[in-house]
Amino acid sequence: MESLYKLYSNSLYNYGSKFTNDQDLIKECIQELFVTLWTRRAHLSEPANVRNYLFKAFRLSLFKKGNMIQKQVRYEEAEHYAFHASITIEDEIIIGEDNAALQSRLQATLEQLTARQREAIFLKFYEGLNYEEIAEVMDISVKGAYKVMGRAIDALRDKLDHNDFLILLALFSSKLFR
């Protein structure tokens, strides 16, 4: 259990920080997740993918604790469902004064995406999950994961000029191959 905690706690914290700025809530949910796993270990079966299981369980715990889920309300329709994606642009990629202006444009464009689209982008490009894993974590179908990602990429392409879009794709690619 300790090795699982050490391996995944930072990623879970990073993921949780995209939903809320409440650091205590994030830490509490991570702690509660691992305590629950420990106390219920005799009753749990081994998941097919431990990372996906932890992300999904953490996400659900965070939503419940943060009163972010209401019964019978679809995530896409919930105004309080907020997933905040952020971009860090490394100095090696963009040099000079244009860096701040570009970062501002890219961030503003990401903020125009829906919360589900930002979450899918984060899971794909920052956590390196494949579409099946994204679907599992977000509790949607694999087809739905492709649709959310496709719509996010289309929206980014529409909202950014060609050069900014290419830079954003390069940044996403560098996240995949780090």
TrEMBL record:
Annotated family: Belongs to the sigma-70 factor family. ECF subfamily.
Pfam families: Sigma70_r4_2
Keywords recorded for this protein, A-Z: Sigma factor, Transcription, Transcription regulation
Species per Swiss-Prot/TrEMBL record: Mucilaginibacter pineti
GO molecular function: DNA binding; sigma factor activity
SUPFAM superfamilies xrefs: Sigma2 domain of RNA polymerase sigma factors, Sigma3 and sigma4 domains of RNA polymerase sigma factors
Protein name: RNA polymerase sigma factor, sigma-70 family
Segments forming domain RNA polymerase sigma factor 70 region 4 type: 105-152
GO biological process per UniProt: DNA-templated transcription initiation
Signal peptide: none
